[in-house]
Amino acid sequence: MDKFDKRKKNVLSKLDKSHIGGWDEKIANLCNKINSTSNYYTTSSCSGRAILLIEQDKKAENLFISVYHDKISLKQLKVDLDSALKLKKKAKFKLESCILHITCRTLEDAEKICANGKLAGWKKTGIIGVRNGFSVELNATDKLEFPIIQENKILVDDNFLKIIVDESNKKLEKTWEKIKRLEKMFD
User: Fold this and answer.
1) What's the number of domains the chain is made of?
2) Cα separations in angstroms, 71 against 27, 39, 136, 164, 174
3) What are 103-161's pLDDT values in tens digits?
4) Residue 17 resides in a domain
5) CATH of the domain at 155
């Protein structure tokens, strides 16, 4: 077993450290396909998500108020905003698109995954490290982010909340399509 294979085995044997304890359902099949190849393995992934979070300059524990890894509903968003008001803190709404980190055996493998990522619609692709193999980041760009609670008030009305839900769900669907397109390239 060479150095790459040892590292792959070690990384894939560790417990998942994400807050959900595993791969998002919508990206799991892609990660399994990548990890079943001899020249690639995943180190982190997210299929896209919407988040209500406490607005703060520094990263800290317990900032997430609500995390949605699936389409969101106006009803649930309103319930979660009402709960967020009780915290008496500034909050923001954030939609993040899919992101995937893959370690590749060779530079050629990394270049191939970058090219395939671009073909599948992932706008930001690049080699971000070469320490333990060639680390590639694939990142879609469908995002939203804005303040939603300040001075203990929701800053937008129900009509705007409907737009937020609509746009977020469209962007999530778009990012999931990119995952499916990349997945087909591993068939």
Assistant:
1) 1
2) 15, 33, 28, 11, 12
3) 999 999 999 999 999 999 999 999 998 887 899 999 999 999 999 999 999 999 999 99
4) no
5) 3.30.1960.10
